[in-house]
C-alpha cells in the first residue's frame, strides 16, 4: 500500500559507510551514530511505546473489548475515553487490546520476509550465473504480481485465519523487494577487495557470506525489515477491514470493519474510526522515520545539511546551494585572524 | 529492441506464473476444496454455488490434475472464467468487463496524475533543498502512512453530506443509465472526484519523497557541476540535467510499485462503493464468490503487467543506455 | 611574462561554519598570465581542487568562500572581481571567460543527452541569437579540433571511450574561446599514453588559440613537462611557486623536493624514488607553524611555532620565484 521510499539505486552505489568493511569497533560507533540520528530516534521511541502497549495492552485495558454495555454509540466520556460502539463496547479497550495482534503480525511477517529475502537475495547476488537468473526471475515475478489481491485470494481459501497464518502468508508474498535490493548490494560488495581477498584465501562460501557480507548488509536488511513491517501491518488491517479474517479477534482493522459495517459514518460516530486510523498512521510514520534514518545513514548525501543560510560581511543573507558557492567577504584585505603577522619574521634566525 | 523483447518475455512468464498460482491455490487445500469452502462459509453457500465450484475446480469430472490444468487454460483462452454466484448465472468475464473500465479510469488516471504531481514536487523539494520545500517532508511522511481506505472514510465524513457537492458513494447518479451522454459523463466525473482525491493524497507523498531523494543524490554528480560551470540557467540545470537523470530510477520505481499501489486503491473503491473491480472483489468476498475473486485477481494482475510494460517502454525512451543495441 | 589575466588575492575557502568549520584554502595569492600554463600540484587534501572550484564559485555545500578576491582581466574592458558578480553576471562569465575540464571524464557528461546537445546548449545559453545551424556547425568544428569525427555528434556519452569523452570535454571547454581553462586532474582516469596524447594536443591548441591554463594534478612529472610555472600547495597554502624548470632543477621547499622524489621522471637521468614519510595534514587539526614541519626532514626551531611567509628567496633566480620556508628566511613577501 505504501511505495517503498528507499529506491534500489540509492542503496547500490556503496557511498559512505557502506563502502568500508565493518569492524566490530567501527560497527558499534556507527550504531551509536544511527541512534543519534534525530529521525531514527523519534521513530524508535514511538515504536517502543507501541511495543509496550502490545505487551501490556490487554492487562491495562479498562474493559473487555468484546463486552457489551448499555451506552450505545456514545461519544468520548470519562467512562469511555474513546466512546463506544453499536454494542456499547469500549473503543479505547479495543484499540489497546488490538495493538498486540497488529505488532505480532507486523513483526512475524517482517521476520519471515527478511529471512526469505536474505536467503534468496544474497544467494542470487553471491553465487551468480544460472542460480542468480532463476532467483531474480522469481523475485521479479513476486514483485510485479499485486501482493494485496494475492494475499486476499490466499487467505480467503484458508479454513481458519489466525494471526500467525495471516502473518505467514504476508511474509511469504512480500519478500521480493528486499531480495532485489539485497541482490544488488551483494553484487557490488562481492567485487570489493575484502570479499575478494577472503575468497582468494580459500575461505568457505558460508563463512564469507556470514562474516564478510552480512555485517555490511545490516543496514539494508534492517531497512527492508522495517519496510515489510509497514506493509504487513497495513495488509493485516486491510484484511480485517474487508472482513477476510475473523471479526472477533481484535485488531485495528476489526474496529474499522465494525465501524464501516455499522454505519458509524452515518451516525457521525467519528470516535469509532478516527483513533484506529491515527494509530495506524502514527505507527507507519514511526517506522518510516526509522527507515529515513537508515537511508541517511547508508547514503550520507541525503543527510540534512544543517545550517544553510549564511550572513555575509556586508550583512546580506545568502543560501548555500550547488553551483553558487556563497562569498562571505570579497575584501582584498587578508583575514585578520588568518593573516601572517610580521612579528614572525623577527623570530627568524 | 532486445531489451523490450526481454521485458515482454518476462511479463508473459509472470502472467503464466500468476495464472498457474490462481489454478493451484484452491487446489492446495487438503481434501476436497469445495467441501473446505463449504465448511469455511458455514452453510452460506447455495447449491447452485456449490455446483459452480465443482465445475470451476474441475471436480465434476474425474480427471487428473494435468488434464485439469490443460482444461483450465482452455477455458481461460476462451475467456471463460466461470460463473459468478453473487450474480448467478452471469459469467465472471461479463462482470469484469463492466467494472474494469471504472477501475482503469479512476486508478489509471489518478496514478498517472499522482506520479507526475509527486515527481514535480519532489524535483522542487530536492533542488531547493534547505528552503520552504523541506517543510513538505513531515506532512508527506504522515500522509503516506495513512491507509488509503481510512483516508477515504475521513473524506466521506468531512466532505460529503446532504448539501455537499461530493456524493458519498457509487459511480454515477442512481437515476442514470451508463452511456456516453451529457447526463451520465458529468455525473460519473462528479462521483469520481472524491475517490480520486483520496488516492491522490495518499499516493503522491511516496513520489515526492523518492524523487526528492533522487534529486539530492543526482545533484552531487559531476555533470551537474559541469552544467553550472557552463553557465546554463538554473532552470535548465535543474530540469535537463538533474531532474532528467533523477527521473530514471523513479520511472523504474513506478513500474515496480504499481502492484503495491493498485492493492491500496482497490480499497478506496470499497469505501466509496465505486463500481470497479475492487468493489466487485469486496462483494465477492462477502458472498464467498470464489470464481469472481479469482477473476478479479487475474484481471488486476494482467492490468498491472500491462502497465508495467508501458512503464518499461517509457524507460526505454528515457534512457539512451538501454537502447544501445538496436 | 605578459600581462596578468587572473589574479587571486588572499583567497580563503572553507567548509562548514562555526565550530566545525575547516579552512581548506588559506591566504592564497597567485597570478595567471596571458598564454601561460600554470601548474598546481600537491597531495590530495592540499587544497588544490578546492582552490580551483572556489575561484569559480562551483564548490558544493558546505563550501564557503570566506574572503579574498579573484580579479579577472577581460580581453577588452576593465578588470573586475569574480567573487563580486551577481548570479546572472556569474552565469554569463562562466564558460565565456573561464571553462573547466573536470576530474572524472566518465561522469562529466550527462548520460541521457547526446554529445551535440551538450555542446550546443552552451551556445544556446551564451549566444541566444545564434541560429541552430551555426550552433551545430560550431559544435562539429570543436569536435574536429580535438580530433573526433563529426559523426560522433549524435553519440551518447556511454558510446564513447574514456579518452574520447575527455576530448569532448576539452572541445566543449574551448567552444566559447575562453581566456582561461582550468583543468582539474583532467587525465587521471586515463592510461599514460592517452594522458600525454591529450595533454600534447591541449598545449598545441593553446598555442593556436592563446588561452591560459591552470593545470591541477598530483602528478608533478606531468606538470614539469607541460607547464610554464608551477605552484606547490600544502595544507591549503602555496608553499612554493617557480618556473617549471626551476622547480625541477632545484626546488627550495623540502615538500617540493619530496613530491619530485616520489615520481619517476620521463626524461633526464634516472634517480631513486623516495616519497614523503607521513600523511597529509588533517584540515581540522592543522599543525602549528609551518604545517609541513612534522613530516619535514629539515625542520628546525622556528618551523613548529611560526608560519613562514611566501616570499622571494635570495637565490640568483630569486626574482622569478617564491617560497614559504624558514630555510629561506630573507624572503621578501610577495602578493600585495
From TrEMBL, chain A:
The keyword tRNA-binding does not apply. GO terms for cellular component: plasma membrane. It is found in: Cell membrane. The chain crosses the membrane at residues 40-61, 102-126, 138-158, 164-182, 213-233, 239-258, 270-294. Keywords: Cell membrane, Membrane, Transmembrane, Transmembrane helix, Transport. It is a multi-pass membrane protein. The keyword Signal does not apply. InterPro entries: BP-dependent_transpt_permease, MetI-like, MetI-like_sf, OppC_N. GO terms for molecular function: dipeptide transmembrane transporter activity. Residues 103-291 form the ABC transmembrane type-1 domain. PANTHER family: D,D-DIPEPTIDE TRANSPORT SYSTEM PERMEASE PROTEIN DDPC-RELATED, OLIGOPEPTIDE TRANSPORT SYSTEM PERMEASE PROTEIN APPC. Belongs to the binding-protein-dependent transport system permease family. This is Peptide/nickel transport system permease protein. It comes from Actinoplanes lutulentus.
From TrEMBL, chain B:
It comes from the Bacteria. One of its GO terms (cellular component) is plasma membrane. It is a multi-pass membrane protein. Pfam families: BPD_transp_1. Residues 100-311 form the ABC transmembrane type-1 domain. Keywords: Membrane, Transmembrane, Transmembrane helix, Transport. The keyword Transport applies. SUPFAM superfamilies: MetI-like. The chain crosses the membrane at residues 7-25, 102-124, 136-159, 188-209, 254-275, 295-318. The keyword Transmembrane applies. One of its GO terms (biological process) is transmembrane transport. This is Peptide/nickel transport system permease protein.
UniProtKB/TrEMBL annotation, chain C:
Pfam families: ABC_tran, oligo_HPY. The lineage of its organism: Bacteria, Bacillati, Actinomycetota, Actinomycetes, Micromonosporales. Keywords: ATP-binding, Nucleotide-binding, Transport. Belongs to the ABC transporter superfamily. It comes from Actinoplanes lutulentus. InterPro entries: AAA+_ATPase, ABC_transporter-like_ATP-bd, ABC_transporter-like_CS, Oligopep_ABC_C, P-loop_NTPase. CDD domains: ABC_NikE_OppD_transporters. One of its GO terms (molecular function) is ATP hydrolysis activity. This is Oligopeptide/dipeptide ABC transporter ATP-binding protein. SUPFAM superfamilies: P-loop containing nucleoside triphosphate hydrolases (SSF52540). The keyword Protein transport does not apply. Gene3D superfamilies: P-loop containing nucleotide triphosphate hydrolases (3.40.50.300). Residues 8-260 form the ABC transporter domain. GO terms for biological process: peptide transport.
Amino acid at each position: 500500500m505504501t511505495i517503498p521510499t528507499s529506491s534500489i539505486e540509492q542503496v547500490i552505489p556503496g557511498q559512505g559507510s557502506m563502502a568500508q568493511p565493518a569492524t566490530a569497533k567501527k560497527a558499534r560507533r556507527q550504531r551509536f551514530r544511527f541512534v543519534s540520528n534525530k529521525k531514527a530516534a523519534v521513530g524508535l521511541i514511538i515504536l517502543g511505546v507501541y511495543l509496550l502497549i502490545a505487551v501490556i495492552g490487554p492487562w491495562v485495558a479498562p474493559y473487555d473489548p468484546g463486552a457489551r454495555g448499555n451506552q450505545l454509540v456514545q461519544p468520548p466520556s470519562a467512562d469511555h475515553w474513546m466512546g463506544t460502539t453499536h454494542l456499547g463496547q469500549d473503543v479505547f479497550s479495543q484499540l489497546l487490546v488490538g495493538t498486540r495482534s497488529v505488532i505480532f503480525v507486523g513483526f512475524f511477517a517482517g521476520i519471515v520476509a527478511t529471512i526469505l529475502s536474505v536467503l534468496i537475495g544474497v544467494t542470487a547476488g553471491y553465487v551468480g550465473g544460472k542460480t542468480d537468473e532463476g532467483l531474480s526471475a522469481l523475485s521479479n515475478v513476486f514483485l510485479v504480481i499485486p501482493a494485496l489481491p494475492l494475499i486476499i485470494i490466499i487467505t480467503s481459501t484458508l479454513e481458519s485465519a489466525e494471526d500467525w497464518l495471516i502473518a505467514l502468508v504476508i511474509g511469504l508474498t512480500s519478500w521480493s523487494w528486499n531480495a532485489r535490493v539485497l541482490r544488488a548490494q551483494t553484487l557490488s560488495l562481492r567485487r570489493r577487495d575484502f570479499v575478494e581477498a577472503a575468497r582468494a584465501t580459500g575461505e568457505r562460501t558460508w563463512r564469507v557470506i556470514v562474516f564478510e557480507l552480512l555485517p555490511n548488509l545490516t543496514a539494508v536488511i534492517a531497512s527492508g525489515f522495517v519496510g515489510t513491517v509497514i506493509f504487513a501491518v497495513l495488509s493485516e488491517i486491510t484484511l480485517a477491514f474487508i472482513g477476510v479474517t475473523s471479526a472477533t479477534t481484535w485488531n485495528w482493522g476489526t474496529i474499522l470493519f465494525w465501524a464501516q459495517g455499522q454505519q458509524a459514518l452515518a451516525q457521525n460516530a467519528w470516535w469509532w474510526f478516527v483513533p484506529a486510523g491515527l494509530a495506524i498512521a502514527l505507527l507507519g510514520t514511526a517506522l518510516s522515520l526509522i527507515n529515513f534514518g537508515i537511508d541517511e545513514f547508508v547514503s550520507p548525501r541525503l543527510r540534512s545539511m544543517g545550517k544553510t543560510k549564511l550572513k555575509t560581511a556586508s550583512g546580506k543573507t545568502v543560501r548555500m546551494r550547488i553551483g553558487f558557492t556563497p562569498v562571505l567577504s570579497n575584501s582584498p584585505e587578508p583575514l585578520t585572524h588568518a593573516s601572517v603577522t610580521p612579528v614572525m619574521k623577527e623570530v627568524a634566525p | 529492441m532486445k531489451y523490450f523483447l526481454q521485458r515482454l518475455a518476462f511479463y508473459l512468464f509472470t502472467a503464466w506464473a500468476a495464472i498457474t498460482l490462481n489454478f493451484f491455490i484452491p487446489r492446495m487445500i487438503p481434501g476436497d476444496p469445495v467441501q473446505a469452502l463449504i465448511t469455511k462459509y458455514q452453510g452460506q453457500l447455495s447449491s447452485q454455488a456449490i455446483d459452480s465450484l465443482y465445475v470451476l475446480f474441475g471436480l465434476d469430472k474425474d480427471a487428473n490434475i494435468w488434464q485439469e490444468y490443460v482444461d483450465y487454460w482452455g477455458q481461460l483462452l476462451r475467456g471463460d472464467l466461470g460463473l459468478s454466484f453473487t450474480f448467478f448465472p452471469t459469467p465472471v468475464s461479463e462482470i469484469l468487463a463492466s467494472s474494469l473500465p471504472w477501475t482503469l479510469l479512476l486508478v489509471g488516471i489518478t496514478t498517472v496524475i499522482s506520479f507526475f504531481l509527486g515527481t514535480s514536487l519532489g524535483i522542487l523539494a530536492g533542488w531547493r533543498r534547505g528552503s520552504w520545500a523541506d517543510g513538505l517532508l513531515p506532512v508527506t511522511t504522515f500522509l503516506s502512512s495513512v491507509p488509503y481506505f481510512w483516508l477515504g472514510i475521513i473524506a466521506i465524513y468531512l466532505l460529503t453530506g446532504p448539501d455537499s457537492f461530493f456524493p458519498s458513494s457509487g459511480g454515477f447518479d442512481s437515476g442514470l443509465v451508463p452511456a456516453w451522454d451529457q447526463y451520465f459523463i458529468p455525473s460519473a466525473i462528479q462521483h469520481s472526484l472524491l475517490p480520486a482525491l483520496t488516492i491522490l493524497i495518499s499516493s503522491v507523498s511516496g513520489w515526492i519523497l523518492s524523487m526528492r531523494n533522487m534529486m539530492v543524490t543526482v545533484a552531487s554528480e559531476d555533470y551537474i557541476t559541469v552544467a553550472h560551470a557552463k553557465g546554463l540557467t538554473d532552470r535548465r540545470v535543474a530540469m535537463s540535467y538533474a531532474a532528467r537523470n533523477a527521473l530514471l530510477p523513479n520511472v523504474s520505481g513506478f513500474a515496480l510499485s504499481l502492484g503495491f499501489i493498485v492493492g491500496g486503491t482497490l480499497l478506496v473503491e470499497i469505501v466509496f462503493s465505486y463500481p470497479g473491480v475492487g468493489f466487485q472483489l469486496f462483494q465477492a468476498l462477502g458472498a464467498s464468490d470464489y470464481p469472481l475473486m479469482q477473476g478479479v485477481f487475474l484481471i488486476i494482475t494482467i492490468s498491472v503487467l500491462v502497465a508495467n510494460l508501458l512503464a518499461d517502454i517509457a524507460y526505454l525512451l528515457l534512457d539512451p543506455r538501454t537502447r544501445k543495441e538496436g | 611574462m605578459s600581462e596578468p589575466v587572473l589574479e587571486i588575492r588572499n583567497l580563503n575557502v572553507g567548509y562548514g561554519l562555526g565550530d566545525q568549520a575547516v579552512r581548506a584554502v588559506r591566504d592564497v595569492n597567485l597570478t595567471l598570465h596571458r598564454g601561460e600554463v600554470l601548474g598546481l600540484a600537491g597531495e590530495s587534501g592540499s587544497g588544490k581542487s578546492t582552490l580551483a572550484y572556489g575561484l569559480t564559485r562551483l564548490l558544493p555545500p558546505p563550501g564557503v568562500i570566506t574572503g579574498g578576491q579573484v580579479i579577472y582581466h577581460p580581453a577588452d574592458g576593465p578588470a573586475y572581481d569574480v567573487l563580486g558578480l551577481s548570479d546572472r553576471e556569474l552565469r554569463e562569465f562562466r564558460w565565456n571567460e573561464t571553462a573547466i575540464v573536470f576530474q572524472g571524464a566518465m561522469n562529466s557528461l550527462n548520460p541521457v543527452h547526446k554529445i551535440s546537445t551538450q555542446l550546443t546548449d552552451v551556445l544556446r545559453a551564451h549566444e541566444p541569437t545564434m541560429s541552430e545551424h551555426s550552433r551545430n556547425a560550431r559544435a562539429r568544428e570543436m569536435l574536429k579540433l580535438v580530433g573526433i569525427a563529426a559523426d560522433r555528434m549524435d553519440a551518447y556519452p556511454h558510446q564513447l571511450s574514456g579518452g574520447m569523452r575527455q576530448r569532448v570535454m576539452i572541445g566543449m571547454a574551448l567552444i566559447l574561446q575562453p581566456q582561461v581553462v582550468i583543468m582539474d586532474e583532467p587525465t587521471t582516469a586515463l592510461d599514460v599514453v592517452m594522458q600525454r596524447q591529450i595533454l600534447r594536443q591541449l598545449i598545441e591548441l593553446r598555442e593556436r588559440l592563446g588561452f591560459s591554463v591552470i593545470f591541477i594534478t598530483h602528478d608533478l612529472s606531468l606538470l614539469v613537462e607541460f607547464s610554464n610555472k608551477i605552484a606547490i600547495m600544502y595544507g591549503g597554502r602555496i608553499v612554493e611557486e617557480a618556473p617549471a624548470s626551476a622547480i625541477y632543477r632545484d626546488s627550495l621547499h623540502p615538500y617540493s623536493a619530496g613530491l619530485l622524489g616520489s615520481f619517476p621522471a620521463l626524461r633526464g637521468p634516472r634517480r631513486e624514488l623516495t616519497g614523503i614519510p607521513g600523511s597529509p595534514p588533517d584540515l581540522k587539526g592543522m599543525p602549528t607553524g609551518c604545517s609541513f614541519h612534522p613530516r619535514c626532514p629539515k625542520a628546525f626551531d622556528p618551523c613548529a611555532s611560526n608560519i613562514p611567509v611566501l616570499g622571494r628567496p635570495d637565490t640568483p633566480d630569486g626574482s622569478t620565484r617564491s617560497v614559504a620556508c624558514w630555510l629561506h628566511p630573507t624572503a621578501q613577501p610577495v602578493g600585495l
